[in-house]
Amino acid sequence: MSRNHQSAARESLQQTGELERGLKDRHIQLIALGGAIGVGLFLGSAKAIHKAGPLLLVSYAIAGLAIFFIMRALGELLVHRPVAGSFATYAETYVSPWAGFVTGWTYWFTWVVTGMAELTAIGIYTHYWFPSIPQWVPALATLAVLLGVNLIAVKVFGELEFWFALIKVVTIVATLVLGVAIITTGWGPLGQTASFTNLWSHGGFAPVGMVGVVFTLQIACFAYTGVELIGVTAGEAESPEKVLPKATNSIVYRILIFYIGALVVIMSLVPWNELSPDMSPFVHVFDKLGIPAAAGIINFVVITAAASSCNSGIFSTGRMLYTLAQFKQAPARLGRVNARHVPAAGIVMSAAFMLLGVVLNYLVPEEAFIYVTSIATIGAVWTWGIIVFSHLRYRRAVRLGHAAAVAYRMPGAPFTNWFVLAFLAVVLVCLSLDASTRVALYIAPLWFALLTIGYRLYAVKPEQRQRLAQAQQQAA
């Protein structure tokens, strides 16, 4: 079975309507935004501030630029072929069947691990009100509720995620407005002055030197994990040709404003070296300002933010397993939908693996967050890299007349493609420099080796190998 035939079969299955196209424009817009605004901003930024001070803004800006090009590449591919589980489809069509198999399973793994991070964050946030409750208890309760929501119907998921995301967006906007108002008046805690000068008045803008960028680049990348979620929702969008370019264009600018703008305000309200690395800076800053009621509200919001991102993770992993199973790259049971057109088996399997995050919170609560975010970053780097490389190969196919061009295009290609790939390589190097994040580099080779074995033994039957080799030669 050739790559093009395999991909056409996968696309045809999506067009049969087995997955309900129940996500509207407003759902897609907020899901794309909400999936990327979660624990990376509300908790991960605290650790980044502690490691680099105000210089972390450079890390977020560099990562944001790379994300912009990644999203434009993905947008072009989505307009060309809007199918659920799109990353695997593009990798399979324009790179190789192995790449499609690995990408599908790696993206599933990335969101499972990201879900673990969000559940870990919920346990940490709950300590603000109930410090004696074990971290794993709220994590388990949240997972159970979100599993139930995702098993009902895609419209229910879409509505819940819409309101989750809206709460996050409104909160960040309110924080920006209130923060700027406080900075303008110069009011601050305990006689201190809230001012933009706090960005460079406490050890300079780069208090630990440029090495701060190295130590925070991984956190910045993890923070942006989820922007590619529109590639999973594509198969359930009502008007993908209209909705997807709009979502792709708007999400990048919104995230840059929300991330960089919010962090500038936070570090201007309270000096960066007075913020705790173990507490959401959004909560801590209002505590420091002597507004405990606002701090409590923000803490509730960051819990909903983590739940929102975990909700997106359960949604996307179920759809990815559905796509893999439809293409005979996962057990057939995972490719079935229930009476509500929901891939229930895939959702339950993903949630079951997320339970490992609950176990991790029980065994090593202090280290759980940094471990899972580092591993998730590896998965994100692979996914983003394969999107950009698939786009390179797609453009090559267009030049050769093997694929149709679209009006919505990635700017600066192929130079911007190579810029992104080089950036992702630097992120991997940065992961190797910190002992706490290096564990991800130990796990990654084992994961890819396991997938390669699975591909040879399960996804590619002996009688298919010769046909696949012939197809690869013809496409070369």
Automatic annotation (TrEMBL):
GO annotations under biological process? amino acid transport; transmembrane transport
Q: Which domain of life is it from?
A: Bacteria
Q: Does the keyword Transcription regulation apply?
A: no
Leader sequence residues: none
Q: Where is the Amino acid permease/ SLC12A domain?
A: 27-459
In what way does this protein cross or attach to the membrane?
A: Multi-pass membrane protein
Ribosomal protein is among the record's keywords: no
Q: What is its main location?
A: membrane
Compartment(s) of residence: Cell membrane
Q: Which UniProt keywords apply?
A: Amino-acid transport, Cell membrane, Membrane, Transmembrane, Transmembrane helix, Transport
A GO cellular component annotated for this chain's UniProt record is: plasma membrane
Where do transmembrane segments lie in this chain?
30-49, 55-74, 136-154, 166-188, 208-230, 251-270, 290-310, 342-363, 369-394, 415-433, 439-458
> InterPro entries annotated for this entry?
AA-permease/SLC12A_dom, Amino_acid_permease_CS
Pfam families, alphabetized: AA_permease
User: What name is this protein filed under?
Assistant: Permease
Species name: Comamonas testosteroni (Pseudomonas testosteroni)
Lineage of source species: Bacteria, Pseudomonadati, Pseudomonadota, Betaproteobacteria, Burkholderiales
